[in-house]
Amino acid sequence: MPMSAHPIMPTAVWDDRRVPHAEPIHVQLDADEREVLRAGLLDWGGPARPTDAFATAMGFTDAASLSSEARELWQQIDRSSSLTAEDWRRVLLAVEVVFVSDVVGSGLD
Fold this sequence. Notes:
Blueprint: E1 25-26, H1 31-42, H2 52-57, H3 63-80, E2 82-83, H4 85-100
Antiparallel strand pairs: 1-2
């Protein structure tokens, strides 16, 4: 069964057979979508407290690097709204987790 398109992300982001990992994917984001991504990514430099294992499971180097890597991803989005499929996966997972998790994210803040 094919995966349906997400309102923000094209179907191709989740289907590795369609998009090479290194090819940038441009996503048209409105102001609200940009603000959600910005807030979620930058929360990793504030109230969120990931472990090394959790950071690497999300695709980041380690807990100490997650904040700077998330900031770099945000800066790329802010400049062009284009990331590789792998980077979009890291962004979406990082934003989902930071807002929902009371354990490693900023869910209570």
